[in-house]
Amino acid sequence: MGPALRKYLGVSDGYRGELAGKVPHEAVEAFARALIDHASDHPLVDGSQLVDILEELVTMDVPVAALQLYEAHREIFPAADFRAQFHLGNAAMLAGSLVLAEQAFSEAQRLVPAETAPYVNMAQLLAYDARFDEARRWIDSGLDVDPNHFGLWELLAWTLRQQEVPGHAKTVEQIARQKNSWAGLSLAMDLVAPDEPERKLNVLEDFYAAGTTSEGFLVEYTAVLGQCGLYDRIPAAIWRADVAVPGKPLSWKLKLHLAQAQLAANRFADARGSLEDLSGMDGLPPQVRDGILPALFAELEESQATPVRSES
Asked: The pTM is what?
């Protein structure tokens, strides 16, 4: 339960009860009824507070309660606010109210055309409703805003497969070249030649040479360098990311690629330092913290215990 909802319900900050995990449908319905009962006696008067609560209810996976709260407070709903329309759209989509979701996402996109989230959600809504041509139009418009949005490229590939477009991987590649998108070309190479990482590397090399230094690109680029066994080139690419935005820390993904490259190149002291640095980072996914990191530390210990043979 988020801070806005706790404040509205008068719940102590020390409250630790949650609607988490697989919550029975009856419990969700009971919570929604209790919330609406509370709202009838304590109506909201602040539109921004309503939006904050809608967002928290969606995060808690109780979109029906969010819609009921919206219906009870239509008069204060800030319809000209991007966040309001976007979170209303999310609640409606999750609750199966697709007409309302479509209206809300369309309005959110109109309010802030440069934000990609409404394009993604609208395209998902249309695609899963088998309205593929409409979905592709939204995807195309979203890629005009951000040509390297991985989610939109993946959704495009999925939509083309659902439409049974012949050579859909080549279609992705063609569109990616038109939009000069490294993300689209990277996905296209995964689809066209999944067992030939060299082809993907050749495509990304052009963007690297042209000075592309975004984190997303360098994560993709260093990953394919590793697939091609070019471990010695990974630290230089990551250093490039480090100086591209002074003061911005490296992401855990780049630090992980650095540690893996150092380990593969038998630079054990550097690898240990990188792994220890990585293990101290907040927000690591469980599969990294509990799976990949222990495995790399074990590999490091085993490698250091085995003498490295030199060529005579």
From this structure: 0.85
